[in-house]
Amino acid sequence: MIQLIRGFKDILPGEVELWQHIEKTARSLLESFGFKEIRIPILEHAELFARSIGEDTDIVEKEMYTFPDRKGDLITLRPEATASVVRSYIQHKLYAKDPVRKLYSIGPMFRRERPQKGRYRQFYQINAEVFGIDSPFIDAQLIFLLAVFFKKLSATEVKAHINSLGCQICRPEFKEALSVFLLAAKEELCSDCRRRRERNPLRVLDCKVPSCRLAMADAPSILDHLCPECSRHFEAVKHALEKFKVSFVVDKRLVRGLDYYTRTTFEIQTGSLGAQNAVAGGGRYDSLVKALGGPDQPAVGFAIGLDRFVEMTDLKAKDFAQNPDIFIAALGEKSMSMAFDWACAFGLEGIIAELDFAGKSLKSQMKRADRLGAKHVLIVGEKELEEKAVIMRNMTTKEQLSVPLDNLIKAVKDKIS
Ligand code: HAM
User: Residue 126 C-alpha to ligand 1 middle, in angstroms?
Assistant: First the structure.
């Protein structure tokens, strides 16, 4: 039998209801904060990601699903949404009328990482981006929004980690100081970090290998190298978070795995997922729109990892599952034909109705109604048709009453609402 590809998964009925609930909550929250949905394609030119996420990142270097299409163009299954949203903002001149745009999207991303708990090759993100605002208030508002989202869905075991990565003015100076430190610490670093040391030294800061952590304990901090502008921005973000009563920790090691960030970066981390502790991540990327050929517009955003969120929350899919409101147990051909009409009419009224098409006995139909978790059963046979009334049984209280056939749909609707 053909099986799933490693690192991919099916989200089955019985699980998907929780996903739907989370997505619904996210949509409603984001829309309350002025975000509009954008749907971007799953395939893009490979170059888009190389130029935005960065050639020397793990994602671009070794995790992208990139392949030539039939004409030989290199295309990539998107590993994240930000680059595509920026491309779309530029391509459709979404800045023309008003540079300020707040856009969200929900969908699958693809990274060929080593699969483990909380890490998949196809995973889902809720992604939000704000263009055209450079105020630190908006950085804080996004982190506030994340805090509200987690609280709304009773995911309380989380903490916001924040940092600043400076800008094109102050970061090179920090990189210089870091490189000097890394050269001295070279022998203690893992083989990956020895490589990163030259190509992407910032990434050494968040290496999880214990020997690297030890070696980096006294590494210089970016926060000591921020230029006055970046420093003011970071102070203002912290101040606004305090005002919004969002608890956070300043985490000078938080460098993130994508190269486009400037100034504020943040992650929502949890202790309940083992190594994959980031349930959401984001930050400012003030140079990316321009770098990809657009106007000089600042931007900031985040993505929530839905798979990880589902794994950490105590909410249960069954609490959001919709069981049938009605099971119609029909006996005999005539009843069956009427039951089918009713089932369609119930459906049109938003009442979920199921019935058995196999002409089984009443006992076996009642068993099925029970298995499906139907709230009520309508029993209809020859006798009921003659008497022009069906029996309606409440499956919880076991109460039974007779409902006249004329105006049945409305009568049932009134009874169950
Ligand atoms: P990211 O940190 O790469 O950021 O991903 C965001 C979230 O996606 C992570 O915190 C994690 O929850 C989830 N995630 C990432 N990789 C996997 C995986 N292999 N399996 C399961 N979940 C995963 C971004 O993607 C940026 N585009 C976020 C952003 C938006 N920054 C600015 N705007």
Answer: 9
CB 120 near ligand 1, within 6 Å = yes
Q: Rounded to the nearest whole angstrom, what is the distance from the C-alpha of residue 294 to the centroid of ligand 1?
A: 24
Domains of the chain: 16-170+226-316 (3.30.930.10), 323-412 (3.40.50.800)
**What size, in residues, is the chain?**
417
> Virtual CA dihedral for 179, 180, 182, 187, nearest 10 degrees?
140
| Region label for 173, one of left (φ > 0), alpha (ψ between -120 and 50) or beta (otherwise) | alpha
pLDDT per residue as tens digits for the range 164-210: 999 999 999 999 999 999 999 888 999 889 888 888 889 899 888 88
d(CA 78, CA 84): 8
At 239-297, the pLDDT tens digits run: 999 999 999 999 999 999 899 999 999 999 998 788 789 999 999 999 999 999 999 99
Which stretch of DSSP H or E encloses residue 282? strand 278-284
pTM of model > 0.85:
yes
For a mutational test of ligand 1's pocket, the pick from 38, 58, 109, 158, i.e. the residue with the most ligand atoms closer than 8 A to its C-beta, is 109
Is the distance from CB of 22 to CB of 304 less than 8 angstroms?
A: no
Rounded to whole angstroms, how far apart are CA atoms 390 and 260? 66
Chain centroid, CA 32 distance in Å? 17
205: nearest Cα among 171, 159, 232: 171
